[in-house]
Design goal:
Elements (H helix, E strand, L loop, with lengths): L2 H27 L9 E7 L2 E7 L2 E6 L2 E8 L3 H31 L7 H17 L4 H61 L7 H15 L4 E5 L5 E5 L2 E5 L2 E2 L2 E4 L11 E4 L5 E2 L17 H9 L11 H4 L6 H25 L14 H4 L6 H9 L10 E3 L19 E3 L1 H5 L5 H4 L10 H10 L5 E2 L7 E2 L1 H41 L3 H36 L1
Antiparallel strand pairs: 1-4, 2-3, 5-6, 6-7, 7-8, 9-10, 10-11, 12-13, 14-15
Length: about 550
């Protein structure tokens, strides 16, 4: 080899070592950077000089080393497994959080438990049955009823507020998805430009794109593939979200049927308002519908405010896929049952006064509580006109005022103000006739019996009838069990995600000790190449000085 050719060998070693040191330093400086993937330097032979031929072989002299590629190290299958399990974990953890919020509102685990209000109401009517004409006990019934109503409305309004909170979270997540999609499209363009000459890999840009994919997979079901040009195409819930540099934007839209609640529907803007999710499709791993926190938020929120009117078997299916709307329906059904049966006994003097327009449907509501003879005894004691109801509709409340089916929902009730001012008006002081000392024991005992008789099955599809306390306990227990189920699945998936992430970090993660070892190696290689270059330079200088 000529001395001039030897220079190429030395320079190539210096350049290769310098580039390797730069890559190692870049790894160390980004050791705590989210989403960063360690980079490896792949070295290869520099060009060869052909100096002759021997038989069938070329006589060649190598001119040193070259950097073939600075490659980031990832495992495609680990990435796919991580994103799949991350989406499922996000769905179940978000669903569990919703159940926890519901349990918190009822206060059974901590705080003021609603069950106490229901029990106190039952106890107040039990005491009244012993001495119905006692004005103190009558006043106690009205006071406790007010506390029951206040607590019930606090729970129901809390559930409504939580629905509104979920609604805003849905909008925020859709905005984030659109932001991620636009950023992927931007990165696609930048990556293709950098790698167009096939001279350099856009590793840091690819890291940013992979990090966005990780975040996007926690929000919903994501499918993706990279084409030959380097563009990453992404599908969200089976629909093209990113196509090279084009983005199919999502939109949160309030449709006409959602106007009362203000609930958002998530749709594809460019597909004529096609919904992103079919919420009627059951959640299952087989159908891949249990992925992403966005679906979990939609499932938890539901599409409407649940009321007792939805408890009818043909309407219950519209709310039962939503944890919040379902509990609102069951809870409102319970509270409406209590208030309606109490009012029915207090207000109707004759059975023929029950009309189609009367929401209470007295005979139907009391069928389980009273026998025919007991009901007749109550009616026979009503000989002096109309009595005051205990629970009244809020007259000035605009909400649902025109909807006769739910105007007696718990959020639209209040205690009769006339009874608050004069408790003795309650069932005319429980006297059978005005100015008569004869006590209306039949009505007082009938009121007590309401709480000790079968009220309803837990759901329209259930078979076992329950009393009020049993219904409430069953309702709360069913949600506690649901929460435990979600928690169990979420914890299991979290372990799986952590395990996959550990395996993934073993591939893509930066180890400071490994990188420092490489730095020492490349530094020694740089020094060796530098010394080699200096020796060749001294030899050439010596020859030239001697020839001169």
């Amino acid at each position: 080899m000529s001395l001039m050719g030897a220079f190429y060998t030395g320079v190539s070693g210096i350049n290769a070592s310098q580039n390797a040191l730069n890559a190692t330093a870049h790894n160390i400086s980004n050791i705590d950077t989210e989403g960063f993937t360690r980079q490896q330097v792949y070295q290869g032979n520099h060009i060869y000089l052909t100096v002759g031929r021997s038989a069938n072989n070329l006589n060649q002299i190598g001119l040193g080393v070259n950097i073939d590629e600075v490659r980031y190290v990832r495992d495609y299958f680990l990435d796919k497994a991580y994103r799949n399990e991350s989406g499922r974990s996000s769905y179940y953890s978000t669903s569990y959080e919703a159940i926890e919020e519901i349990n918190t509102l009822f206060g059974e685990l901590n705080g003021t438990a609603f069950q106490e209000s229901l029990q106190k109401l039952k106890d107040a009517f039990t005491s009244l049955a012993i001495s119905p004409t006692d004005s103190t006990l009558q006043s106690q019934v009205i006071t406790v009823s007010g506390q029951f109503l206040e607590r019930a409305q606090a729970v129901y309004n809390g559930l409504s507020d939580y629905q509104d909170n979920l609604n805003e979270q849905i909008k925020d997540q859709v905005d984030n998805i659109n932001k991620y999609a636009k950023r992927i499209a931007e990165l696609n363009s930048q990556i293709v430009k950098v790698e167009a000459g096939n001279l350099e890999n856009a590793n840091d840009l690819r890291d940013a794109r992979n990090l966005i994919l990780d975040k996007l997979s926690a929000l919903g079901r994501v499918e993706y593939n990279e084409n030959l040009l380097g563009y990453l195409n992404v599908k969200f819930e089976g629909v093209e979200l990113v196509k090279e540099t084009n983005v199919n934007v999502m939109e949160t839209r309030i449709n006409d049927e959602d106007a009362k609640t203000g609930f958002y529907s998530v749709v594809w803007s460019s597909l004529g308002g096609q919904t992103v999710y079919d919420l009627d499709t059951p959640v299952s791993t087989e159908q891949k519908t249990d992925k992403g926190s966005l679906r979990a938020l939609l499932d938890a929120r539901g599409t409407r405010r649940g009321t007792y009117a939805d408890f009818k078997s043909d309407d219950f299916g519209k709310v039962e896929n939503s944890s919040v709307a379902t509990i609102m329906t069951m809870f409102d059904h319970l509270c409406f049952g209590v208030t309606a049966q109490i009012n029915a006994l207090l207000t109707h003097a004759k059975e023929d006064s029950v009309t189609k327009e009367n929401v209470y449907k007295c005979a139907e509501l009391l069928r389980n509580s009273l026998t025919t003879d007991e009901y007749k005894e109550v009616l026979d004691g009503r000989t002096n006109g109309t009595y005051d109801e205990l629970f009244c509709v809020i007259d000035k409340d605009e909400k649902n005022k025109d909807d006769k089916d739910i105007q007696f929902s718990i959020c639209n009730l209040k205690i009769n103000e006339e009874l608050l001012a004069q408790p003795s008006r309650l069932n005319n002081g429980f006297l059978q006739e005005i100015d008569s000392a004869s006590a209306d024991n039949a009505t007082a005992k009938a009121l007590e019996k309401i709480f000790n008789s079968d009220f309803s099955t837990l759901t329209p599809s259930s078979a076992t009838p329950l009393k009020f306390m049993g219904y409430y306990t069953g309702m709360v227990n069913s949600y506690a069990e649901m929460g435990e189920m979600y928690k169990s699945v979420a914890d299991s998936l979290e372990v799986s995600v952590d395990s996959i992430e550990s395996a993934r970090q073993a591939v893509i993660g930066v180890s400071d000790s490994d990188e420092l070892t490489k730095m020492i190696k490349y530094q020694n290689a740089y020094n060796a190449s530098s010394r080699y270059f200096n020796v060749v330079n001294e030899m050439l200088e010596h020859l030239l000085s001697q020839l001169a």
